[in-house]
Amino acid sequence: MRVPYDVLISGCGPVGATLANLLRQQGYAVAIFDRDKDVFIAPRAMQIDAESCRIFQQLGIQSRLEGRDARPAYKHVFVDKNRKTLMALDTHSIREIYGHAAAGMRFHQPALEHLLRADFDNTEASPKVDTYLGYEVLAVDGAGSAATLTAKNIETEEVTEFSGRYLVGADGGNSLCRKYITDTRIDMNYARRWIVMDVLVHDDALWNSLIDRSEFMCRPDAAVVFVKGCNNHVRFDFEVTDEVAETFTKDDAIALISNYFDTSSIEFQRIAPYYFYAGMPDKWRKGRVFIAGDAAHLTSPFSGQGLNMGIRDAANLAFKFDLVFRGLAGDECLNSYQDERWPHCERTINGATARGLMISANDLRGRMKRALSFFIGRVSPGLALAMTVKMSDFTVYENGLIGAHKLSGDRFIQPWVTAQDDVPMLLDDVAGDGFLLLTNGSDASQKEAWFDKKLGGKRLHIGTDIEDSKGYLTAYFEKHDISAILVRPDRYIFDAGDDAAALTAGLKDALAAYG
User: Fold this and answer.
1) What is the pTM of this model?
2) pLDDT given for residue 167 in this prediction
């Protein structure tokens, strides 16, 4: 058995790689395993939301991704079978209260994964991540005093057992770790067959002529999703019957794409049938083994949240592992991972399913409801945008490691502030990666040994430590009638109120309750 690690991660996709880097930043020994040595050639996800951007900002990756490999996703259009516009949405005007484009960014997944993997060896202030790529995971076990993972080197066929304090399966929809944890999955009303087509456009003039948007063609049981991505990549998702999926050919793909643009300069990276399914296993933990990402939840693609849910999983697990490893909370604190994330993902998946069923509605009631929504959108684009924002509001945590204030479990904003030397910075870049106690008004909060030294929390007072240059923080405090707010490392609010000392004491008590 190899020397124990703090965390073993099965699956080196973007979720597993994000978790590995978050733990690496905290100084923990991590090993990550994947059957494939190389990053998959084509994007599987194409949109990261403002929260994922914020997590990648923490990792120092977001600024490197933007530009060629990511750009704001502003335009979304719904069309009929003749590509006549039914409703258009432009999200330019939505305020970016979380520090990044409100509707998220279109991005190139292979580029993101290369950046995440490159940082495995970033040993400037932390240990590197040990990578076992080209290793097939054969078995996992979380029942003992340590988690174990048995893996085979595909080239040499050597089988080795590894151990760690915990193990996380970020190993996809056919997860071995999920099968170890449970056989029960909760279905969420969506199971459809699609053809996924990834296309490279080699003619730059043609590429530049394509409108930068996502387009949803509404047809009964036969929707088409067309998205202009990054790096000359275009995605088509085409809803089909099982019979069509079995006989679908490259010529069929060319015929479909020719309705959108000239196909003479395209190259197919992938043409594959895909079974979009919405559901989750009933348990995300067994002993020392956890699941995250697609292993923990599968969704229809209509909200662009499949990957984003997994990135939130990684951020949630990472800071809770840190609390347990530092002796600030017992192992039971890790149960709050499912307490928070399961209902959060359930609501997100149900929202995506509702959108998907609307787009490909085949019954009269569904089509009439869709027609009414699109009519409102055409008559009043502002109202349509407001309705979309309301439908897309980020889901809050209602249970878990949170306090009692009405804001507890909500995500905290990230405005630009002015720090030392009058340099404008995003709030998270000033606050750092741990717990944040932010105060306003006369309550500057006194130093307290447990929060400052033991927990390693950061205190910032508006007007003293930072200047609220645009007034967003001050307006937030006034709106909610508070003078102090305590924010978790994943930037969800633990608690808020008028007594900063009571907030930190409440956090200490909450952690103590986990053992």
Assistant:
1) 0.94
2) 98
